[in-house]
Specification:
Elements (H helix, E strand, L loop, with lengths): L1 H7 L5 E5 L9 H12 L4 E5 L5 E2 L3 H11 L11 H9 L4 H13 L9 E2 L3 H24 L4
Parallel strand pairs: 1-2, 3-4
Helix pairs in contact: 2-5, 5-6
Length: about 150
Amino acid sequence: MMAHLSKVVPDLRQLVAVDQKFILFSRAWCVAELVEASMSEIPQNVEIYSNRPFRANDAEALHIYAKLAKLTVQDCKASRKEDKDAILARIPDIPRFDAKLLEIIFGTYGLLSQKFVGFGLLDAAVRTARRSLEVVRSNTDNKNGTTE
């Protein structure tokens, strides 16, 4: 839908309103729309319930960070199983999708890049690099006709 809208609505932007417990990132439709908007080069802005940065010594913030750093679309939920199945069926490469999702959240210009202070964004970068490596290996294996 976002790809279609980007073609028919001039100056389209996506505003991401994040709930207090960050449940938005556990919903399959939501993360699918985030990635599709990013891939369609739609500018994205985020609004969070609090403007304060998350600190590493805050247990709640640490829980949220850990949940987001391990995020994969396969673990996301939908109201109906058929919805989740349809979303996953439209994603040709789930590891690549997950890597893009982490980039959208934690990347240099990511939605939450300025919110986590002292969490070691390097950790998120390492996770993204690992997932990217999985994508490259998967593509190489597919081109060579081998599977693991």
